[in-house]
Amino acid sequence: MHVQGDVDLPVKNPSKTKKMKKRKMEKWIPYLFILPSFLIIVSFLFYPIGTVFYYSLQYYDISAPYYNKFAGLDHFKRIFTEDDLFLPSLFNSFKWVVSQVGLQLILGMILALLLNQTFKFRGFVRAVAFIPWAISGVLASVMWSLMYNEHMGVINDLLMRMGIISTPQAWLSDTTTAFIGVVIAEVWRGIPFFAITLLAALQSIPEELYEAARVDGAGRWKSYIHITLPQLKNTIVLTTLLRTIWEFNNVDLLFNLTGGGPAHSTTTLTMYIAEQAVHGSNFGYGSALTVVTFGILFLFAIIYLKASRFEREGD
Amino acid sequence: MYKHVSRSFMAISMAATLFLAGCSDETATAPKTPKGTKDEPVTITFWDENAGPQRTPIWEELIKRFEDKHPNIDVEYVGLPKDSAKKKMDAAIASDDMPDLASVQTSWLPEFSIREALLPLDDYLEKSDLKDKINEGAVKFNKDIVQDNKLYGIPYTQNLDILWVRPDWFKEAGVKVPEIWEEFFTAAEKMTDKSKNRYGYTIRGGAGGSFQLQRLMFAYSGLEDYIDESGKSTINDPKHVEFVEKYLALYKNFTPQSDITNGYKEMIAGFDTGAVAMVQHNIGSFGEHSEALAADQFQAIPLPKTEEGNSVAEGGNTIGISIFKTTKNPEAAWEFASFLNSAESQSYWNQQVGQIPTNSDVLNEQWIQESPHIQIAFEVYNDPNTVLYKPPFYLPDYRTILDNQVDAGTQAVMSGKSTVKEFLDEWAEAMEKSEKQYNEHFKK
Q1: pTM (two decimals)
Q2: Are the beta carbons of A280 and B111 separated by less than 8 Å?
C-alpha cells in the first residue's frame, strides 16, 4: 500500500475551527490508510519473529511438554560447543549459497546478453528460457528425482549411451554426488531470475553510451566492462543480495530430492532447523538455531551493502 | 503515531486473547448429560493416522455403516498422512484442539497419556459386549506400557514384521528360502544377479530405516530388554554390532545403490517391480504386492530365527482406537469405538488391509484360514518361544532419536563415514541419556 505525501486538499468551508479540525483529521488520515498493512506486518511478521526469540531461550518440545522450562542461553551454548552438526550444516549452507548465486549470476548474465540480441523468434526463445522459473519447487523436484533415478533415469541412460559410465549410478544416494546433483537442479531453476532482471536492466542502458564508446574505438569486451557492467551494478548487487537470502533459506529441492541425506551430506543450516523443529518438534532448539541464522544473514546484508557501496555511484 | 502503535497493539492483543479463549474450550471432564445416546444429533470427529487411497475408503465404508445404524451420530472423518500423523496429533494436543477419537498407534500411548490427552477406557470396556473378546495380550500390553497402567486404546489390528520373498526366483535358482540368519545372508548373495539388474535384498536406508534395522537387530540377538534395569541400553551389545556389520555389508554388493535413501515406497517398489528377491516389511503390505505381482511371485516368511531357534517380534505392534479427553460426547465416541472393534467391522477392515484382527470372533472366519501371510503371523504370535521385546515407547524422544539420529547414522555407516561400533555406541548413548532424564523427572 502506498501513502501519498500530499494530503493538503483544498478546503471549501473557511470556518476556522472547522478548518483546524479538518486539518487535524487529515493529518491522521494517512496513518489510517497504512493501519491495515501495519497490523498485518505486526501480527504476521513481528509477532512470529518475537516468539522465535522468546522460544530460543526456552526448552520447548511439544512432544514432551513436561520438560519445558526456561533455558537461558543453554541452547546457544550447545550450538557453539556441543552440536556436531551446526558447523557442517553452516558450511553446507555456505557452499550452497556461493555455488547457487555464483553460477546463477554467470549463466543468467550470459542468457540475458544472448536474449538482448536481435534474432528471429526472439520473443518465443525468451518465453521458453523463463519456463524453469515458472515451475513449482515440488514439480521440479519430482522431475529431477526421476531424471537422477538409478534404474530408469534419463541422465544414466544418456551417460551410458555416450560411454561415460558403464553401470547406472544413484546420483542422489552417494555422499560425493548428491550435493552437486541438487546444485545443478537448483541452478537450472534459478537462472531465469537473473536473466529476467538483468535483461530488463540491459534494455534500460541508453544506446548512446555504446555509440560513444564505438566512436572512441572500444570493442565489444571493452564496452561490456566499462559500460554494461557499471550500468548493471545496482541490479547485480540487489539481485545477488536477494538471491543469497533466498538460497540460504531455500529448502524445497533439498528437502524433496535428498531430505538432507545421505548421512547429512546435503543438510544446510535451514534443513537442519527443519529437522530439529519440524521433524523433532524441538521448537526451543530450532528457534535458537533460527536466531543464529537470522544474525548471520543480518550481518551479511549490512556488510554486503556497505562493501558494494550500493546506489552511491548510481545517484 | 505512538498512540496508534499502542492502539494497534491493544487491538492485536484483544484479538489474540479472543482467539486463544476460543481455542481453549475446556471440556476435559465428561458433561453431566451425555449426548448422543438417544435422539439428540451429535457430530464426532475421527482422525485416521494412516490415510491414503488404500485405507481411507475402508474407513468411509465403516463410517457409512455406523451412521446407518446411528442416524443421530454424524462422524466426521479426517485423514492424516502416515508420516505426519504423529506431528499433527502432537500439535493438536499442545493447542488443546483434539478430535473426539482417533486411530492411535500403540507406541504413542505412553506419551499421550502422560500428557493427559486420552480418556481411560477400562470402565467402558468392562461394561461392553467386547469384554473378553479383544486379544488379552494386546490389551495387557497397552496397559503395561503406560505409567498409570490404565487402558487408553482398544487395539483393532495387529501387525507382524516378516520377510517378503520371490518363491519363483528361489525355486529357479535352487536356493533355500531362509529360516535362520545364516541362510538369509547366503540367500541375499546367491539371489543377486547384477547382469539381470536383480538384487538379493533391499535395505531401507532412508526415512523409517531405523525401525527396520532395530527390529532385525533384536530378531538376530534375541535380547528382550532394550534398556536394562541399570539404565544401560543393549543397542550396542556385541551381538548387535556383529549383526549390523554383516547386514550393512550387504549394501551395494547385494542390494541396489540407491538403498541408502530408500523410504517405504522405494523399498516396496523395488520388490514389486522385480528388482529384488527379498524385502523386510510387515504383513500389511500384502495389498500392494498382490496388485503388482502374481500369486506365485510373492510369499510371506517369518523373520529368520535366532541361534537358539526363537522367533522375535517387537511388542506393541498394534493400532487401536483412543478417545480424547476433550470430547464433548464420550458416549457417542465410545459407541463408534466399540462399533469399530465389533467382529463385523474388524473383519472388514483387516481383510481389506491384510492384517490380524484382535476380536476373537473374527479369527475363525474363512478369509483368515485362507490367508497364508496371516497364518504365518498367528504361528509366530502363538509360539510360546517367541520373544517379544519392548522398545522404550515411553521416552518422549524415542522416535526423534530414531528418525533424526539413527536414520542419518545408518547412512553414515553405509557411506563409509563411520564404523558400526561408533554408530551403535552413539545410538545407545542417546537412549540412555533420554532414559536418565525421564527417570529424573518422573521417578525422583
Answers
A1: 0.79
A2: no
